[in-house]
Amino acid sequence: MLHTLSRSPWQCDIDTLLSMLREGDDLLLIQDGVLAALEGSRFVEILTNAPITVSALKDDLDARGLSGQISAKIDVVGYTDFVNLTVTHASQMNW
């Protein structure tokens, strides 16, 4: 399943999100969700310890001036990658 986090991690129920993640899922951080990718954020450790791939949308990072502050544990992807993720996963959950 493709999970997208579009709200600030401080504005969503991370515990519920974590309980819904399954091995092989992808989590794409978009819009204000990219705040979860900040280096040193507690959310980076929480999310990267799950059996999933965590990515952040480059355009949303750039729009917020955060590109140089992202953890190396987070993959930075473009819109083409976003489309590929939606094709790869039959279902999607937005948080």
Automatic annotation (TrEMBL):
SUPFAM superfamilies: DsrEFH-like. GO terms for molecular function: transferase activity. GO terms for biological process: tRNA wobble position uridine thiolation. Keywords: Cytoplasm, Transferase, tRNA processing. Its main location: cytoplasm. InterPro entries: DsrEFH-like, Sulphur_relay_TusB, Sulphur_relay_TusB/DsrH. It is found in: Cytoplasm. One of its GO terms (cellular component) is sulfurtransferase complex. Transmembrane segments: none annotated. Part of a sulfur-relay system required for 2-thiolation of 5-methylaminomethyl-2-thiouridine (mnm(5)s(2)U) at tRNA wobble positions. Heterohexamer, formed by a dimer of trimers. The hexameric TusBCD complex contains 2 copies each of TusB, TusC and TusD. The TusBCD complex interacts with TusE. Belongs to the DsrH/TusB family. This is Protein TusB. It comes from Enterobacter cloacae.
